């Protein structure tokens, strides 16, 4: 029905956002709380419940909600409803879908990873709209992603398919917190772009900003060390994108997240590097484009995923049907 709404949660290490999303992707109510990421699991869950309470406080809108979608930092296991976000230590094998289900009663609950949620949003309303095969990426504090294959969101059995950040692109590279070595995330995430620049002699300005955004500003102004750090990040991304294209024949790679805000400082060397890695005939036409959905991608995508996968494996059914 056109009046139906979907509740959405976007859960990360910094914030827990919630929204009520209409059938056209419009956000009718939103709220957020900081994530108490260093606290125990119960405290983090209390913040999630507070966001849900804020959404439910608008009774006329809440009565129209037919399901709830969650996009969470990962790893997630959508098949069991369990999450273990790297940046929320208090949640290890945490039964998030069951706990949210206790708070929302009869509403079906669908869980996906945050990269899959962003992909759902970009495919529905953003830069991957109309594309049959796409990789959508979030390049920020970490590097995540999701896949559209055959015109449909493809989360995989556990909701993590497309997690490009942990493809190894440097076999002798730095150890990654995931346990592997030389991962895309270890080279191309914002903190690692800044780390590499600092290690090679770049120094922040008088304001002391040592973030990837500051490195991007320095690169834009012609700083060779800052530019080299972005060049290396771009090559890591290009290698991961080309490997994905060779495996599943994507036609488009969509890149969002804070690091993508560097604009051509990132995209120009990325497109150049892609020509070095995407050399097979069936991947040469691969295009790389910036994401369009911005900060709302996680919420809109969680809602889209809930619509796509409600009733599928990994969804918590309504309490009345258990």
Automatic annotation (TrEMBL):
It holds the Pfam family ROK. It comes from the Bacteria. InterPro entries: ATPase_NBD, ROK, ROK_cs. Coiled coil: none annotated. Belongs to the ROK (NagC/XylR) family. This is ROK family protein.
């Amino acid at each position: 029905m056109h009046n139906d709404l979907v509740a959405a949660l976007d859960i990360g290490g910094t914030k827990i956002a919630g929204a009520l999303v209409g059938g056209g992707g419009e956000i009718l109510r939103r709220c957020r709380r900081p994530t108490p990421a260093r606290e125990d699991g119960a405290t983090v869950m209390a913040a999630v419940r507070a966001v849900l309470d804020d959404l439910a406080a608008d009774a006329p809108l809440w009565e129209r909600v037919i399901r709830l979608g969650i996009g969470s930092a990962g790893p997630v296991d959508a098949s069991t409803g369990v999450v273990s976000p790297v940046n929320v230590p208090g949640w290890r094998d945490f039964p998030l879908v069951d706990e949210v289900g206790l708070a929302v009663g009869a509403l079906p609950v669908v869980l996906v990873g945050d990269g899959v949620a962003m992909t759902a949003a970009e495919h529905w309303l953003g830069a991957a709209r109309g594309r049959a095969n796409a990789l959508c990426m979030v390049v920020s504090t970490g590097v995540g992603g999701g896949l559209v294959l055959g015109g449909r969101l493809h989360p995989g059995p556990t909701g993590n398919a497309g997690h490009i950040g942990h493809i190894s692109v440097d076999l002798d590279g730095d150890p990654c917190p995931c346990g592997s070595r030389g991962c895309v995330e270890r080279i191309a995430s914002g903190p690692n772009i800044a780390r590499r620049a600092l290690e090679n002699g770049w120094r922040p300005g008088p304001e002391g900003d040592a973030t990837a955004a500051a490195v991007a500003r320095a690169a834009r102004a012609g700083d060779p060390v800052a530019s080299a750090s972005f060049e290396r990040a771009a090559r890591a991304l290009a290698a991961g994108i080309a490997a994905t294209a060779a495996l599943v024949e994507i036609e488009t790679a969509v890149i969002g997240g804070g690091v993508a805000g560097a604009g051509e400082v990132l995209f120009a060397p990325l497109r150049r590097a892609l020509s070095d890695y995407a050399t097979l005939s069936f991947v040469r036409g691969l295009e790389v484009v910036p994401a369009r959905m911005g900060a709302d991608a996680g919420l809109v995508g969680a809602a889209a995923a809930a619509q796509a996968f409600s009733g599928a494996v990994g969804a918590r059914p309504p309490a009345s049907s258990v």
